[in-house]
Amino acid sequence: MRQSELFTKTRRTAPKDEVSKNGRLLIQAGYINKEMAGVYDYLPLGLRVLKKIENIIREEMNKLGGQEIFMTTLQDPTLWKKSGRWDDKVVTDWFKTRNDEFGLSNTHEEPLTNLLKNHILSYKDLPVYVYQFQTKLRYELRAKSGLMRGREFIMKDLYSFSRTPEELDRFHDKCRKAYLNVFKRAGIGNKTYLTYASGGSFTKYSYEFQTLSEAGEDIIYLDKTKKIAINKEVYDEESVQTLKLNREKLIRERSIEVGNIFKLGTRFSDALGLKYVDKSGIERPVIMGSYGIGLGRLMGAIVEVLSDDKGIIWPVSVAPFKVHLVELKKGLARGLYEKLTKAGVETLYDDRDLTPGEKFNDADLIGIPWRLVVSEKTKNKVEVKRRNAKKVELISHDELIQQFS
RNA sequence: CGGGGUGUAGUAUAAUGGCAGUACGCGGGCUUCGGGAGUCUGUAGCGGGAGUUCGAUUCUCCCCACCCCGACCA
Predict the structure, then answer these.
(1) A230 φ, ψ to 5°?
(2) Structural domain for A185, as ranges
(3) Helix (H) or strand (E) holding A337
(4) Straight-line distance from CA A309 to C1' B42, in Å?
(5) A328, A282 Cβ separation under 8 angstroms
(6) C1' of B73 to CA of A221 (Å)
(7) pLDDT tens per residue across span A356-383
(8) Cβ of A10 near strand B (distance < 7 A)
(9) Is A91 within 7 A of strand B by CB distance?
(10) pLDDT tens digits for range A143-154
(11) Is there a single domain that holds both residue A196 and residue A230?
């Protein structure tokens, strides 16, 4: 894409109403726009990143046998009354329409469980894994930390429907691995740890995926060797013993919860009457699990972890473009841009008529992994530089195309 | 939701009970061009309401918005 045609502009200064690094950098570089506290628009660059993250997750969920759907934002209160979660005292962060006529997608256990009553009748219909990328609306009393705690956010939520606790366990286990894979592919694998947290009513513990960062809201106790952590909320002698960890080796860290997986058991299938008939003809409740990743929070977490004082440093896997082609003289890189495009290399071509300093600063701020500079100095070669590296390399067009396509 | 703070141009900021200034941006001119260039010029602003006052962007009150700490977060 030609940068001269990109409608967003970078800002020279960070916004005064954002403190978090991800909020400041993403707004300053033109990835997102703040509508209100905790409510953000995704602009062209931001949407590209969001879609890349979404695709990584989609691939991993599909590998697990997940089937993608898209549910509604408006929800039927009747279903929520059945589970006892319509009451504002039970779910405190509801958005409801006037006169409580509809609920606005706080989460989707109730409608999905209800929906599956038409499709799951026999043990032959199970197991089933259903997921979606859908907007969640939650009235956070205090939205904060840029993209990391919003009132409106896109979540990948997958729900598993199994016959037995063992079957649930097996899927839960596979999903845990898939999640670790998502975070690895998103570039924060080396900082993200499986964490034991409070499990709710069905199980003692649930799993969270916590990314080490000072910007996080959570405190975990981490065993770096075993790559297991315990959330502060369940950290006690019992949990340490259960997980066979050594208290001495645990280090206290601040972290961002980038995902979680829960065993729900029959909490919702009982409430809404989702049952199946087993081999011997006995009717049993379906056993459920839920598995969430907030896309915006993940995007924010990546920026928190991968950035420096000049801007963002995207991993290639989620970067809006693979290369940032910067020409220091008008039109000088046009031919190379066409070659790169033809070779299928995602390129942001800075064809704007600005000074070198402005272009370099923008490139650092936007944070595309590879910077290619074409100027009179480079003659018929290209200067290649990794965003987080100092050294540059001068290579020919052919070598470049070969390396990047 | 409790406590605290802040609202001035597109952005970031300054000052003031009496003509609201600076920088960047944006438009135009000339000179520049490897780390946010120089110069001339133009453009654009006091969150909303009520009160005090001869006069309020400034003081008081209410509302709204945003930020921070806490609480909350299947």
Answers:
(1) -120, 130
(2) 3-308
(3) helix A334-342
(4) 35
(5) no
(6) 20
(7) 999 999 999 999 999 999 999 999 999 9
(8) yes
(9) yes
(10) 999 999 999 999
(11) yes
